[in-house]
Amino acid sequence: MPKTLLRLSVNGEDHDLAAAPHKTLLEVLREEMGLTGTKHGCELGECGTCTVLVDGRPVLSCLALPIELEGRAITTVEGLAGAGRLHPLQQAFAELGAAQCGYCTPGILLTARALLADNPRPTRQEIREALAGNLCRCTGYTKILDAVELAALRSAGGA
Amino acid sequence: MRGVGKERFTVVGQPLPKIDAWAKVTGETRFADDLSLPRMAYGKLLRSPHPHALIRRVDTGRARALPGVYGVLTGLDLPRVKFGILPVSQDEEALCTEKVRMVGDAVAAVAAVDEETAERATELIDVEYEVLPPLMSIEDALGRPEVRIHEYGDGPNVHKAVSLEFGDVESAFARADLVREDVFYFEGNTHLPMEQHSALALWGPDGKLTLWSSTQTPHYVHRLLGQILDVPPAHIRVIATPNGGGFGGKLDPFAHEIAACKLSQVTGRPVKITLTREEVFYVHRGRHPVLMWVRTGVTRQGEILGMHFRTWLDGGAYGSYGVASTFYTGALQTVTYRVPAYKFEGARIFTNKPPCGPKRGHGTPQPRFALECHLDKIAGELGLDPADMRRRILAEPFTKTANHLTVTTIGLGECIDRVVLASGWRDKVGQLPPGRGIGIACSSYLTGAGSAIYWNDMPHSGVVLRADRSGGVAVLCGAIDVGQGSDSILAYLVAEVLGIDPKDIRVHAADTDLTPVDLGSYSSRVTLMCGNAAIQAAERLRGLLLGAVAAKLGVAAEALAARGRRIGLADDPDRSVSFAEAVVLAESIHGVLAVPGSYAPPKRAGKYKGGGVGPSPCYSYTACVVELEVDRETGGVRIDDVWIAHDVGRALNPLLVEGQVEGSVYMGIGEALMEEQVFRKGLHKAPSLLEYKSPTTLETPEIHTILVETDDPEGPFGAKEAGQGPLLPVIPAIANAVHDAIGVRIDEVPITPDKILTGLRRKREGKPARVGPERLPRFTFPPPRIVESAFGQPADGVAPRPFQGGEEGRP
């Protein structure tokens, strides 16, 4: 199938690339751009593993077509940290053991970041609801909830 | 262990981040499917659509002609050697040549320019099948002996049948105040790691093969490739990539790994095969469906006099670890409570479904569910508090069980006390409003299998430490981190012994060219076995460093201590050198500082056939209380709180232990309430993450974890396992809490709403308030092997281990 030229804004940088128009954002990020931090768990939109942000909103990259995302701001886990400084969510996840195998972690971090952008001090139940679409088989979610709470607290200057 | 007083730990016991935490939260960790190589081809397998069929003809002509296809394989292109993870069950082919035994059996493989072309090519392969009757259940398989799935085993479609009796069970029943019988069923379920299996093979122009794979057992994959490919094992290198979850699902050698290797050879390109989620459901090797019957004789106080346990396992289409699974359904009943006389009969039956194998708890969650519900019923009949009754009948530390297992420390009494207190058990049991319930259960689990999969006298785990002149230390170990934190544990232990920071250590794991063998990340063995090997290596290295510093300072080595990145007199900081200087001094004397450590478990296998399954250096213990609510309109169960106390021996890092306990509770809840791997007409009913129900954040309750430390003499600094044991009591605790809530016994997991509604209806109609299996298969077990009960005999002390060596210096 002939390729289409695309200009995607990923993690604050414009990228020009050519991809078949039916390739998903997940495939283009991983295979055309080498951004393998975005993982796949089902490629059917069921597990949340491949979540990225588009204009700050969580999007399942396995169901998104890049051709529709030109001009939108795409954020992957590689774009979460600032220069030389981890995002408070990343810091909290590392400190509290919220990443075990780490495979679902990028998707959960990005979903949590969107939550905190909307609701800087969510209750535990609100965190549960926000993350209900992201499956994790390792942690039992407990340390993930703890880490989102800690990051929220720190971001609010509470600790 | 000189120099590391347990009261003076600096690293051990601290809630430190894992050493790979930063890579995990930035997406930097490279899993197998994240790897790619120049000129890489993508592979796909063609899988059987039939559960049972003969292969009459395979024509790959149209696939080969498709532009973009680099190579096509059938089983005839591979050496005709059958394989399997256990030496006694060599019954698999990577690509089937004569017969398929399940939907999903691979029959051909393709490598192409991209995944889509490879997939299209598989559709162009013409396979002619002669369909055979599918045997989809234990009853089918036993009822149609003329249809044979395999030609080997202990009878028609019987993979394995075992029968063992330790002590006189019948006379124990004759003396009992109460003899009770129950029947239970545990449906199969699957591991569901978030990462799908993936393998990348590179067969180089020099004729050497490298395989990167998301496997939990690089050593066994290495051995197997050496047996079944036309390349000497010495020319094969297997590198395990960090596993995106395993839970036992990446413990067998798989068709895609073998096909990737061979495709790389025939195409002259690196070849990667990544399974789809649907394929992962069919590859399986997960929890066996097990039907169970148990009869126990007890005194009025609930003291067990004898127990007879029978299991029927639906094994699926291949052997896999099934012989071990079968023994495990009987082996550990005796480790938790005192059981003076014990009889076990088990049979694993072949069916035309994906093969079952080891999933977290391997063969023991099913009997644990049965036993703990059975004991609850006994407590009910005797009018005893189920927590108090269990507390009174615990196994004795440092004794042997009826079936000759040596038990060391037991922290279960404290575990029960702690969860009873924390949960408010005494104010709740039998006193909660209708629809609310509370339940308790206990368990034990091995800390590493005492026997290797193939008999040998070599270490089960090896570590090499290399100290660099910079002061950095490299840890080389064959174990692969599956998310539980084994790399970090190695770094903590070495840092503790050498008095340096975990950050000064790099762990190089699971590369069969570079790292000493570790048997694999299974049976909760890694912390104990690799940990003990790492401590031995670190103590040897420290001995060399201390000796060199002692010569320099003109003092006795015994007067020196290693801590805070310095080695010197403990009470005089001026007379010390930096760790890096100590390395320079020692390397100047000894040459390259590369020091091995080895571990093999004490040889304690019972001297009877089957005695190799069950022994372990030590056992972890867990007690769990669950409080829940049953919606009597919908049959839904909402778990509100789980209190769980786990005897981990010593928490080397409490954060990681809690994580293992919480993950185990979560997985137990999934198995208890929703997860099931079931089939209709040969096809998986729910081969996707949407249809296969697993708990989300909304179904996972607050988990209250309590760690109990018993400082076991077998463990590294006293540690026992934490990754599997805590799953075991969760399932029966839920079942017992459901009974407390609604007065109905659901003797079958998963405990789904339909079963609860059926039970409530039966109760209303005055029928027995129970849902569970009503009948048992017609099957005659072989006559039992009679073995004297070893119950109550004192343990052989802390048995000397192979390779124990001196504490310091080279062996």
Q: Can you tell me about this structure?
A:
The complex is a heterodimer of chains A (159) and B (811). Chain A is built from 5 helices and 5 strands, in the order E-E-H-E-E-E-H-H-H-H. With 159 residues, chain A is α+β, with helices and mostly antiparallel strands. In chain A, strands 2-1-5-3-4 form a 5-stranded mixed sheet, with helices on both faces. In chain A, strand 3 and strand 4 form a beta hairpin. In chain A, helix 2 crosses helix 5. The radius of gyration of chain A is 16 Å and the shape is globular. In chain A, 55% of the residues are buried. Chain B folds into 3 domains: 186 residues, Alpha-Beta Complex (Aldehyde Oxidoreductase, domain 3); 343 residues, Aldehyde Oxidoreductase, domain 4; 142 residues, 2-Layer Sandwich (Aldehyde Oxidoreductase, domain 4), CATH 3.30.365. In chain B, the strands form 9 sheets. Chain B has a 7-stranded mixed sheet, with helices on both faces. Chain B starts with 20 loop residues before the first helix and ends in a 24-residue tail after the last strand. By secondary structure, chain B is α+β, with helices and mostly antiparallel strands. The C terminus of chain B is likely disordered. Chain B contains 20 helices and 34 strands. At the A-B interface, helix 2, helix 3, helix 4 and helix 5 of A face helix 1 and helix 18 of B.
Task: State the gist of this model.
The complex is a heterodimer of chains A (159) and B (811). Chain A is α+β, with helices and mostly antiparallel strands. Chain A has helices at 25-32, 88-96, 105-118, 124-130, 142-155; strands at residues 4-10, 13-19, 51-54, 57-60, 73-75.
CATH class of the largest domain in chain A: Alpha Beta
Q: Strand-and-helix sequence of chain A, N→C?
A: EEHEEEHHHH
If classified by CATH, what would the architecture of the largest domain in chain B be? 2-Layer Sandwich
Number of helices of chain A: 5
Treating each run of at least 4 consecutive H or I residues as one helix, how many helices of chain B?
Answer: 20
Strand order of the largest sheet of chain B: 3-5-1-12-9-10-11
- Give the distance, in angstroms, between the N- and C-terminal Cα atoms of chain B: 16 Å
Mean pLDDT of chain B: 96
Note poorly predicted spans of chain B: 807-811
The counted number of beta strands of chain B is 34
Cα distance spanning the termini of chain A: 54 Å
Q: Please identify the structural class of chain B as seen in this structure.
A: alpha+beta
The number of domains of chain B is 3
Q: What is the name of the CATH topology of the largest domain in chain B? A: Aldehyde Oxidoreductase, domain 4
